[in-house]
Design a protein that fits this description.
Largest sheet: 2 strands, antiparallel
Helix content: 55-70%
CATH architecture of the largest domain: Up-down Bundle
Number of strands: 6
Shape: elongated
Number of domains: 3
CATH superfamily of the largest domain: Fumarase/aspartase (Central domain)
Mean pLDDT: 93
Strand order of the largest sheet: 1-2
Number of helices: 22
Low-confidence stretches: 304-312, 489-493
Strand content: under 5%
CATH class of the largest domain: Mainly Alpha
Radius of gyration: 31 Å
Order of helices and strands: HHHHHHHHHEEHEHHEHEHHHEHHHHHH
CATH topology of the largest domain: Fumarase C, Chain A, domain 2
Oligomer: single chain
Distance between the termini: 9 Å
């Protein structure tokens, strides 16, 4: 990335976004507008990124000596700052549509160029947008926004959520909990194991999203992608150097093949991984919502009160919001999935649709903020967890009893345990080992007695102590608590 761009991003862009009167509304519902993303995705910031691409193309032309040194000296940070401060997307729209008292350009990029010329020395006008088509600027600006928004806004928050999540895993490492399958009581797990499984998915999706963000492309190959104009004006060698230098300045990969538009797949893969990440966060919300229900009552998380039912402790609003936000993200991603093709790879039917693609990021970041609140507030009701576990803990050991009898050669073991031993134990309150003893005292089955004797010697302790039948739950959870999110360094262009 060019040093000037670093300075602009850190020092100038925040000032641009803070200007009074700037429209920073982002795609999506007005209720969900995270402030952190507004300098990148706010409506009036779009023109800023178009200007940045146009400006660094001028810088690139100077670097290959197409712009003479005397004129290249005019490309100062002060002039770039002035352009960014004076031209907003709304200003560009007004110039395009003639809402500023003069005949409009009827073209968004032509409007932008006209506005830029007002603030640039005349000697630079001839180089502005030279050899470019509109979507060289638009596609490259779009890629730049996606990559920057992820790296500067998403990455820190993903790391913060990761830290809180792993702390919760460690906090509840030894708390045995009834596992569930099909919402039915199943074999024992631990609270940490439940959290660890989802955390592992979270890390996987976050790292992959980072990788795809790193590979988002820009393009600068002209109206049909052949770079014909650039080669005629600059020569083939300098044209290639200029395009590569531009992308290097912006920290983007140049699309190896492009038409009028950049290939859609790199951005689509990035958005797809954000959708998968959203699914993990939605799953966490769904689980918390269930475990916080009156029927389970094992989890406590941030909530809201009822407008009428004063007896309620709290509605799990953060957990529910996470579930709903995933649906929003799926719906928005469908726009991306439905616009992957273009006629002969160079029409712009979907340009209006593309304007709201970034709602996936808006909703995704909002979901991250909600997840942070959810995890920070998350606590457990140990007494309720123990009560729920004790209710059926003895019975769920039917798996071990069944497998133990089977491993020693008893036929029909599943039917025996499922139809006779477990129902009897449910009535008597005995554990399954005790129930087997009673069953054999009433049913003289020499074969089963011999097999039970072998089985009991090996499995009786676990049948009597179901809280110990947790396999590698603690070990796996502790390992996941050390699996800190680490965005792998990938090659830069």
């Amino acid at each position: 990335m060019h040093n000037l761009l670093r300075t602009v991003l850190s020092d100038v862009l925040p000032l641009v976004a803070e200007q009074k009167g700037r429209n920073l509304f982002m795609p999506g519902d007005g209720r969900y507008q995270p402030d952190e993303l507004k300098p990148f995705l706010g409506y009036d910031m779009w023109a800023a990124f178009l200007i940045i691409v146009e400006w660094f193309w001028l810088v690139t032309l100077a670097e290959v000596n197409f712009i003479p040194p005397k004129e290249a000296k005019l490309l100062t940070q002060e002039r770039l700052t002035r352009l960014l401060m004076r031209i907003a997307t709304t200003t560009q729209d007004n110039r395009e549509k003639g809402k500023d008292g003069r005949e409009g350009t009827k073209h968004d990029i032509l409007a932008l160029l006209e506005l830029m010329r007002r603030y640039l020395p005349k000697t630079l006008h001839q180089y502005l947008h030279l050899g470019a088509t509109s979507y060289d600027i638009i596609c490259t600006a779009y890629g730049l926004i996606l990559k920057l928004a992820f790296k500067k806004i998403f990455e820190p928050k993903l790391l913060e959520v990761d830290k809180i999540w792993r702390e919760k895993i460690l906090e509840y490492a030894g708390v045995v909990q009834a596992g569930r399958t099909h919402l039915q009581t199943a074999l024992p797990v631990t609270v940490s194991f439940w959290l660890a499984v989802l955390h592992h998915q979270y890390v996987d999706c976050a790292v992959k999203a980072y990788g795809h963000a790193e590979k988002i492309t820009g393009k600068f190959t002209g109206a049909v992608g052949t770079s014909a104009a650039l080669e005629v004006m600059l020569g083939r060698a300098d044209a290639n150097t200029a395009v590569n230098n531009l992308m290097l300045s912006l920290d983007l990969w140049p699309a190896q093949y492009s038409t009028q538009i950049a290939p859609p797949q790199p951005a689509a893969r990035f958005y797809f991984e954000l959708m998968l990440l959203s699914g993990v966060l939605g799953n966490l919300g769904e689980d918390v919502r269930i475990l916080q229900s009156s029927q389970f009552g094992e989890i406590v998380s941030v909530g809201s009160s009822s407008s009428t039912m004063a007896h309620k402790k709290a509605n799990p609003i953060a957990a529910e919001n996470n579930c709903g936000m995933h649906v929003n993200i799926i719906a928005e991603f469908m726009k991306i999935a439905l616009t992957l093709e273009s006629d002969l790879q160079r029409d712009l039917r979907w340009s209006s649709v593309m304007r709201s693609f970034s709602s996936v990021m808006v909703y995704g970041y909002q979901q991250l903020l909600t997840t942070e609140r959810l995890l920070r507030s998350l606590s457990i009701d140990r007494q309720r967890i123990q009560e729920n576990f004790d209710t059926e803990a003895k019975l769920v050991m039917g798996e071990l009893l069944h497998l133990g009898l089977q491993s020693h050669g008893y036929a029909g073991t599943h039917a025996l345990v499922n139809k006779k031993i477990v129902p009897a134990a449910a009535l008597s309150g005995k554990n399954l080992a005790e129930q087997m003893d009673q069953f054999l005292s009433l049913n003289h089955d020499k074969e089963l007695e011999a097999i039970w004797k072998k089985t009991a010697g090996k499995f009786r302790f676990s049948l009597e102590q179901p809280n110990c039948y947790i396999g590698k739950a603690i070990e796996l959870a502790q390992a996941e608590a050390e699996n800190n999110l680490n965005f792998l360094v990938t090659p830069t262009p």
